[in-house]
């Protein structure tokens, strides 16, 4: 059987979806979302925790969201190496990078102007995160497009939910705008996965199963990530239940993943393993929700 070159086979699909993306993507200006009138000199008035308008768990989410966006040079390198810099693939790589570049600059400006986080600590974390970079390993094209579809949707959900928790209309508007970009990026990659499922269904199913089972956000390299992720999970911004209900299940439904036919034996076994894994994930998500509820109740009792 002839090996399928997905990079070549998907080129027309990339071109079609790039055209669609350019038609629907709206221009927006990062500086338009920043309350510049609140700006004050950090030299004249150094940052103190009580200046932040955000709860600790919201600060943790904002930091992770921003520091994840900061690692854009590594992400650009990863997709440029895998997808190339020529033709429709190359045009997409550069367009995606340009759009993503607005996210970090806008969120950082907002946090610095509003004194939402410690600016010195934020800069040290940025340096450490970017010095570590991001390495996607040796993913195939199939695994790469499966992963970025999951990641773009997870990032959209994280930004959107963080915005809701800020209780600040301007922060929520900014993060909703960023989430809109992430959603368009997800739709682009989701369409490529759909096409790949028609071109080489067994290989694509195995890629989806692998990436869904092993999924991690790219921000795991951020200093103190685990501690911050626990706070974010407790707040409901992003936890196991959110990942299952708002990311994994919607994508699998869109692809009609469990209805696909004509798969080889290995793909069928991978799909069965993923179904079992999702059942375990639901159990883990329910247990996590119970633990968090009990923790919140203990805190309420202790505060009385």
From TrEMBL:
Task: Reply yes or no: does the keyword Metal-binding apply.
Answer: yes
Per the record's keyword annotation, is Thylakoid included, yes or no? no
Going by the UniProt record, its keywords in alphabetical order are: Fatty acid biosynthesis, Fatty acid metabolism, Iron, Lipid biosynthesis, Lipid metabolism, Metal-binding, Oxidoreductase
Highest taxon of the lineage = Bacteria
Enumerate the cofactors the protein uses.
Fe(2+)
A UniProt-annotated Pfam family: FA_desaturase_2
- Sequence similarity: Belongs to the fatty acid desaturase type 2 family.
Note the subunit structure.
Homodimer.
Q: What is this protein called?
A: Acyl-ACP desaturase
According to its UniProt entry, this protein's organism is: Streptomyces monticola
């Amino acid at each position: 059987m002839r090996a399928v070159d997905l990079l070549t086979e998907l080129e027309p699909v990339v071109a079609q979806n790039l055209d669609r993306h350019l038609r629907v993507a709206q221009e927006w200006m990062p500086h338009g979302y920043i309350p510049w009138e609140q700006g004050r000199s950090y030299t004249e008035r150094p940052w103190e925790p009580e200046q932040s308008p955000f709860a600790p768990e919201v600060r943790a989410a904002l930091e992770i969201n921003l520091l994840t966006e900061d690692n854009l040079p590594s992400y650009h390198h990863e997709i440029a190496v895998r997808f190339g810099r020529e033709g429709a693939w190359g045009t997409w790589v550069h367009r995606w990078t340009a759009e993503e570049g607005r996210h970090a600059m806008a969120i950082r400006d907002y946090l610095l102007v509003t004194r939402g986080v410690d600016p010195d600590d934020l800069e040290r974390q940025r340096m450490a995160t970017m010095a570590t970079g991001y390495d996607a390993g040796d993913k195939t094209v199939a695994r790469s497009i499966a992963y970025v579809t999951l990641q773009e949707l997870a990032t959209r959900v994280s930004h959107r939910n963080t915005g809701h928790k800020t209780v600040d209309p301007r922060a929520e508007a900014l993060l909703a705008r960023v989430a809109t970009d992430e959603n368009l990026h997800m739709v682009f990659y989701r369409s490529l996965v759909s096409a790949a499922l028609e071109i080489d269904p067994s290989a694509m199913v195995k890629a989806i199963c692998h990436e869904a089972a092993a999924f991690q956000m790219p921000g795991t390299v951020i200093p103190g990530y685990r501690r911050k992720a626990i706070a974010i999970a407790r707040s409901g911004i992003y936890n196991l239940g959110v990942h299952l209900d708002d990311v994994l299940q919607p994508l699998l439904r869109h692809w009609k993943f469990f209805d696909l036919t004509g798969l080889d034996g290995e793909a069928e076994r991978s799909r069965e393993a993923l179904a079992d894994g999702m059942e375990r994930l639901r159990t883990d998500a329910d247990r996590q929700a119970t633990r968090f509820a009990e923790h919140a109740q203990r805190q309420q009792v202790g505060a009385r």
